[in-house]
Write a structure and sequence with these properties.
alpha+beta; 11% strand
Length: 108
Amino acid sequence: MHSGARWDVIIVGTGAGGGALAWRLAPSGKRILLLERGGFLARERDNWDSTAVFIRAKYRARETWFDGRGNAFHQGIRDYVGATPSLTALSSSLCARPTSVNSVTTAA
């Protein structure tokens, strides 16, 4: 992506809402940019294991956040393309993600 790129629509996150919006707008001919914070979630058995997801917190972001008073905490976010692992089944049943993408760029 170059700095002169122009977009008609920018969608932040491809969870249930962002994915459905992208799917609906795809045939419009508009130039659409999808932004994601995380990478693709590996397909593995633990995706569907509630113990792995919720108890072991396998997919939880490890970063430390700070509240307004400077107290550290770990938010329960899980950053992956298309939603969080704990919502994968729900998101998959609510929306269809675009089947073709012109280009995918990830930043590590």
